[in-house]
Design goal:
The protein has 229 residues and is of the alpha/beta class. It contains 8 helices and 10 strands. The strands form 2 sheets. A 6-stranded mixed beta sheet has the order 6-7-8-3-9-10, sandwiched between helices. Strands 2-1-4-5 form a 4-stranded antiparallel beta sheet, with helices on one face.
Length: 229
């Protein structure tokens, strides 16, 4: 379960202070598919980054299964973050690395420095990555560099990398905005099936109301940093 309590975040630019998230409180049950919709600048992306601890809140808290990620630091924070996978509109893959390498990169945080520097992954992790790639329909591309793949294929790799973390939560920041309708529906169907199979909590930012209505259990509307629906 995700508990968001009076969460606030603002930014200063050219002497002007802008509220990105303005005192949001929400409780999101485990295993739901949530779409957060709203115009550009509504605070959707900031909200996701606050949930996974990528940025620091000005006030309030986010609790993941009762653990406060907002105040956590160091190993404790990284332990909470391991529960949370994130995918982005631009995929955030290492373009010249292979499909398998990109998925295995999810393991870097728990590896020793020597293994990280030389890219030495355990046989167990490699086997697990291959099985995940089979699940997302990318096993036949395992040795291809990410840069050679289509947008839809790259997003499948990003999802596989998030699953590799064994997280309970998947955050998706406009995950299909750059894809054509066929690939977009394919990716959303995959995310929905993973939600049902693994009881994952999925929180997706979107401008597309039709997609939100089709795939979501809940819809949250944001505007000017606040929940309006």
């Amino acid at each position: 379960m995700i508990e968001i309590i009076n969460l606030r975040k603002g930014y200063k630019s050219n002497g002007k202070y802008t509220i990105a998230v303005g005192g949001i409180s929400l409780t999101i049950p485990e295993g739901k598919f949530i779409s957060v919709i709203g115009p550009s600048g509504a605070g959707k992306s900031t909200l996701l980054r606050l949930i996974n601890g990528m940025i620091q809140a000005d006030a309030g808290s986010v609790r993941i299964d009762g653990e406060d990620i907002t105040s956590a630091k160091g190993k404790r924070k990284r332990k909470i973050q391991r529960k949370i996978g994130m995918i982005f509109q631009d995929f955030c893959l290492v373009r010249n690395s292979t499909v398998l390498q990109n998925v295995l990169n999810a393991c870097l945080a728990e590896m020793h420095l020597f293994s990280v520097l030389f890219g030495i992954f355990s046989a167990k992790n490699k086997e697990k990555a291959v099985k995940i790639l089979e699940r997302v329909g990318m096993a036949d591309q395992i040795d291809q560099p990410a840069v050679s793949l289509s947008g839809g294929e790259q997003q499948r790799i990003a999802i596989a990398r998030a699953i590799m973390q064994e997280g309970k939560i998947l955050l998706a920041d406009e995950p299909v905005a750059s894809l054509d309708p066929v690939n977009a529906n394919s990716i959303l169907n995959l995310m929905k099936s993973l939600q049902n199979e693994k009881n994952m909590t999925v929180i997706m930012n979107s401008h597309n109301v039709e997609q939100a209505l089709k795939y979501s259990d809940w819809i949250i509307g944001m505007n000017s940093g606040r929940v309006v629906y």
